[in-house]
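Re: that chain you flagged

S.,

Sorry for the slow reply, it's been a week of failed gels. I finally had a moment to sit down with the sequence you sent. For the record, here it is as I used it:
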Amino acid sequence: MLIGELSRRTGVSERLLRYYERMGLIHSERRANGYRDYDEGTVETVRRIRALLAAGLPTRVIRQVLPCAFDEATLRPCPGVLTSLRDQLNVLDRRAADLQAARSLLRRTIAATEGAAGRAPAPDVGTSAPR
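Prediction finished late last night. Pasting the structure tokens below so you have them in one place:
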């Protein structure tokens, strides 16, 4: 199938499909006219890629674990897969902790700003009228 058909069937843009191919996640044959020709199984592969991306995996990890995938979000325990998944979970946990710290700081800043606004007149930050 041509890339346009693959895009239509998966809901993934042609540009992103080309990126997946450059990253080694999907493969195509070239027709005599140079057009990419994907086999029927590529539809399911793209769906697996999308599910793994939604789970927070970067494409470098997906390239490693994709051969072990047997449906949209289930992997066989191939060598190294669980280690890669756990490593990525640790990355996401650190990001979540960083975001939580940023949210706490922002909440404290808002509270302090609201408290200061109650004690002093708020500066005019809008458009000012001529004096």
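What I noticed first: The helical segments are 3-10, 14-22, 41-54, 59-65, 81-119.

Talk soon,
D.
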